[in-house]
Amino acid sequence: MSKKDEKDINISKLDKSLEGQGLLEDADDAEYERTLAQQRREAEERERQVLEQAEAERRERERQEEKERERRLAQERIELMKLKSGVIDESESSIKEEHDQIRELHGFEKVQNFFYHNKVWIIFTIFIIAVAAFIFIDAARREKADLTVLMIANNGLETRQEELEEFFEKYTDDLDGNGYVHVEVIMIPLNSHSDDYQQQNVNSTKFLAQLQGGESILVITDSNTDEEFKSIMTPELPKEFPNNKYVDDMGMSWNMEVMAKELNFENMPNDIHLSMRTPVKTLGDSKETMQENYDKAFKVFKRIVDDMTEKAVEAGDKGLTTEPVHYDDSSLESSDSTESSENK
């Protein structure tokens, strides 16, 4: 046999030896796992036996207590019968009136006892306090408007509240000093010729209520606004802006392409105006108070006029092409006559 063959045989024996060791190691691991499993089963069995024994002892204890209680009751019944029949008197009887001893409470036990006996009222009181606190905090955090604008035009702007508020906020100061600017645009579209009489009555009442105070100065109007409402708007604004074609007796005309883009209102009618109420004494405010509010609102009005006029001039603004829908008696009459002729 050559040395090479002997070497191959030795290598083969070594491989078999290693394989045998691996099998032994696997066998040892399996035996170890079986031992652990057996130990777990034995521990669980011991635990089960302990629990069963404890349960049996508890049942036996309860049985003995019940037996003793029945024995005592039977004895008391016998003695009670003897008392009633006069065989024995109370001094000879073992039946005594028992009173539960009142244990004096100390420290935290007193607190627990108080909460236990008054928990319903305590929970109710906590609920009331929580509701009151929520209302107070909500009122304290609620945004107070630095400027209020009334929107009474009935031409589609009532769907642009967010755009309008963001537009006015760009020109308004933080008047109340709370760190942010908030403008509230109140939507009250008015149309005296609407078929929805109930809604128009609600809106008219809401607008008239706003007129009782002198806080809301800026009003968005259009050509359909009632003449009686137009009459409370100041006609003096053209004097403040001479030679500005966008300012007339009704205020600032929004007949601008740049304005339609600002409000994201592609088909905005060309008859919308930003008007200002004439300062007068109202039911809720004096003329002086309303004049102060007017002066604050005029600063915003002037900023809007100056900025939007400049933008319109720079853009070569040609104005809006969407004509307004006029709601007047004549149009209604013609509409009625058309319907009548069609019915005939």
Top keywords for this entry?
344 residues, alpha/beta, single chain, 10 helices
The SSE order reads HHHEHEHEHHEEHEHH
Total helical segments:
10
Note poorly predicted spans. Answer: 329-344
Biggest sheet, strands in spatial order?
2-1-3-6-5-4
Count of folded domains = 3
Average pLDDT, rounded to a whole number, is 80
The best one-word shape is elongated
Approximately how much beta-strand content do the residues carry?
5-15%
Assigned CATH class of the largest domain: Alpha Beta
Helical proportion? 55-70%
The number of E-state strands comes to: 6
Query: How big is the Rg?
Result: 47 Å
Distance, first to last CA:
130 Å
The biggest sheet, with number of strands, parallel, antiparallel or mixed sense and barrel status, is: 6 strands, mixed
- Corresponding CATH architecture of the largest domain: 3-Layer(aba) Sandwich
Structural class by helix and strand composition:
alpha/beta
Work out the oligomeric state of the chains in this entry: single chain
